[in-house]
Amino acid sequence: MVGKVESVDSCLAEQAEALRVQLHEHNRRYYGLDDPVITDSEYDHLLRQLQEIEQHNPALRTPDSPTQRVGSAPLPSFESVVHVVPMLSLDNAFDDDELRDFDRRVHTRLGIEGDIDYVCEPKLDGIAVSLLYENGVLRQAATRGDGYNGENITANIRTVASVPLRLHGDDIPPLLEVRGEVYMPLEGFRAFNADALARGDKPFVNPRNAAAGSLRQLDSSITASRPLEMCAYSIGRMEPGLTMANHMDAMLQLQHWGLLINGLVARVNGIDA
């Protein structure tokens, strides 16, 4: 009898893991590649199968399961997180002269003559975050804060559908810190504000405030109800060390691992490109 029970448990565990692998891959294709291969209803069917298994077998539920995006119990406060590599802010260039001055400083610092390749992408107006993956599994998320210390928002970031809870691929490093921007797309912002007004609630002033206010909630179920997305824009650190030749290669590698990058990111040659 014991052997039979163990066999059933093993079969359910394998079935649950197979469903998690399928769902993670479909999330990667939907959010990271914009190339879904199943319909929303087919995805929901797979998710319901996994939910049913985990509901009746709580021991089979894992922290990186796609079912764990609905939010958890409210926190009394946010824990502080120290950024091993500081999350520094960006400088602005307000006109052509300032942009060319930046280009000259880059040439001087690198000691390079001739055109330099740059990677360009739109600056999303949201809240900067750091995601820490260990062996491909999301372990921690933090806000930028003052650049040196942020807030632990792991429970909240798990509810953002475009953030992979588990990375895809066989070449995943033991430790990877991804940096990106959590934002509220305009369509979602307008719909959320319309619903708020219909309820008699105060709407958000702009999408940036909406993203920040939604992500910094002690009750992650509130975050789960908000239409948030995240775009990765850099690697903060990686162990045993960066293996990409340049920033564009790093961005494409993040996309391969299942992270969403901006669709307008482009590599250009020279400041006048």
The CATH architecture of the largest domain comes to 2-Layer Sandwich
Query: What would CATH call the class of the largest domain?
Result: Alpha Beta
Overall helicity: 25-40%
The overall average pLDDT, rounded, is 89
Question: How far is the N terminus from the C terminus?
Answer: 72 Å
Give the spatial strand order of the biggest sheet.
4-3-6-7
- CATH topology tier name of the largest domain: D-amino Acid Aminotransferase, Chain A, domain 1
**Quick one: how many beta strands?**
8
Indicate the proportion of strand residues: 15-25%
Quaternary organisation: single chain
Please compute the radius of gyration using only Cα atoms: 21 Å
Order of helices and strands: HHEHEEEEHEHHHEHE
Q: Major sheet, described briefly?
A: 4 strands, antiparallel
Number of spatially distinct domains: 2
- Note poorly predicted spans: 1-5
Shape: globular
In words, what does this structure look like?
The chain has 273 residues and is an alpha+beta fold. The chain has 2 domains: 2-60, Orthogonal Bundle (Helix Hairpins), CATH 1.10.287.610; 80-85 and 122-269, DNA ligase/mRNA capping enzyme (D-amino Acid Aminotransferase, Chain A, domain 1, 2-Layer Sandwich). Helices cover 38% and strands 18% of the residues. It has 8 helices and 8 strands; from the N terminus they run ααβαββββαβαααβαβ. A 4-stranded antiparallel beta sheet has the order 4-3-6-7. Strands 1-5 form a two-stranded antiparallel ribbon. The chain has a two-stranded antiparallel ribbon with strand order 2-8. Strand 3 and strand 4 (137-143) form a beta hairpin. The chain starts with a helix and ends with a strand.
